[in-house]
Amino acid sequence: MNVPLPDVPEVRVVGLPQLTSGFDLVHRLDLDMHLKVHGALEPMPGERLAELAEAVSLSGRGGAGFPFGRKLRAVAKSSIRRGVRPVVVVNGSEGEPACRKDTVLLNRAPHLVLDGALLAAEALGARTLVVAVTRDSTEASVRQAFGERGLSDRRGQTLRARIVRTPERMVSGESSAVIRAANGGPSLPPGRKVRASDSGVSNAPTLLSNTETFAQLAVAARLGPQRYGNTGLSTEPGTVLLTVSGSVARPTVLEVPSGVPLRYVLELCGAPPLPQGVASGGYHGKWIDGMTAHGAVVSRKSMDAAGGALGAGALLPIGPETCPLGETLRVAHWLAAETAGQCGPCKLGLPAAAAGLSDVLGGGGRTSLEALRQVTQSVRGRGACAHPDGSVRFITSALSTFTDDLASHVLNGGCGRPTQGVLPLPAPGYQEEGVPSGEKLAVDWTLCEGHALCAGLVPELIRMGPDGYPVLADASVPVHLQGQAQRAVRRCPALALRLEEAPAPRGPAPSNRQALPRGGG
């Protein structure tokens, strides 16, 4: 199946709209319509803005959930200490295939996002605003919004505003990758941990937050803490934007008050009455089983208690007709190909984890399962960015959630259900620098003699199996590994290894068994 999400899915609302006000009137709120719907917004001193953020418990909506008020104070303190004007960055770099809420906001309500960003810039005394985006439609909408407000990057402007385009990649939305891109570098994490509040864009203290976070700030500034707190839970007031896809009637972005039952959200989007599981928080989140999801509500605390994660607001239920571990494997291969290639846990560990899960589903038994667990344990906590941890969290949560399916694969060689491909991934032919190249490694098993030279040259994609023959990752060769893959092909003593065009998916696989053919010389 694998139907990628559209840039701007259908938008629905439960209760009274706040972020999505005016969406029933026009497709995109230009500046005039934005002011008619939301009204003007008065500037606010820095201390008062921080107090507002703390009063409404505003936290980052990009996944980490860091308190916005603390971040604002940290940037202000660093700016005063260093005597340097800070920079404000809107992180609209939404490279996860299961997320569209930020893209919806920047395409349909760009001025609400800019309201929050400009409010923070004025409070901090910033003279630079950067908006990072991933898609053509989003860039066009933000550029139009800049024009409507008279914002530009020209010298002499009181506030210089510019757009930074990042690739549509999982790692490109990481805060340090966005800052690196804004500084003219590649959209990859730098491999070292530096607080943006101390040194970010142009080495200045930088307030970087997610698109929805700035939009929520603008809503809270207009309503005030009391009216804002009248919606949702007292501990997590306000509304939440969710992207719901997977086994649903149609992908939907919803604005809901916090505290709404999760089962109601899923039913509203046409999910099965009792899904066998829900991937919560996206592909760096966690799986939760259907019964647990039935009793959870939309809040960080409730999702955490259920063993899931609110994360970036992505919810992906799956029905009983597909193998949940097979669905996880598809995503695991994609996550492995999304590696920045800058540290061992990402470069080596994630392909090994995907290959290990493939072995388990292919009938590898208890030995393969134990090997997979060892790989995920070795990756956890050792990456240069959050990508390795998030990826193995997604994989290991599937093992602990779908225990019956896991037992069927380990003990019986399969669960008997096909993998339908209901979790969205980029469309065939999708390419960006550092992600799948469109080529795939293949082995002629009538020639392979198990020399193991290829596994030493490109261990990210090839490892040696317990029978002494290579096991290839079921993923397209990333661009940054093409050179190594070509060397492995040239140096194969038996001329058994080759690069060929990766076939486009033709539909769901007939089964979950992925046993690798063996050959010998």
Automatic annotation (TrEMBL):
The organism's place on the tree of life at top rank: Bacteria
Keyword terms of this UniProt record: 4Fe-4S, Flavoprotein, FMN, Iron, Iron-sulfur, Metal-binding
SMART domains: NADH_4Fe-4S
Natural source organism: Streptomyces lycii
Protein name: Oxidoreductase
Assigned protein family: Belongs to the complex I 51 kDa subunit family.
CC cofactor: [4Fe-4S] cluster; FMN
Keyword Iron carried by entry: yes
Pfam families: Complex1_51K, Fer4_15, NADH_4Fe-4S, SLBB
Domain NADH-ubiquinone oxidoreductase 51kDa subunit iron-sulphur binding residue range list: 325-370
SUPFAM superfamilies: 4Fe-4S ferredoxins, Nqo1 FMN-binding domain-like, Nqo1 middle domain-like, Nqo1C-terminal domain-like
Classification of source organism: Bacteria, Bacillati, Actinomycetota, Actinomycetes, Kitasatosporales
Keyword Thylakoid among record annotations: no
InterPro entries cross-referenced by the UniProt entry: ComplexI_51kDa_subunit, Nuo51_FMN-bd, Nuo51_FMN-bd_sf, Nuop51_4Fe4S-bd, Nuop51_4Fe4S-bd_sf, Soluble_ligand-bd
Region of interest called Disordered, as start-end residue ranges on this chain: 180-202, 500-521
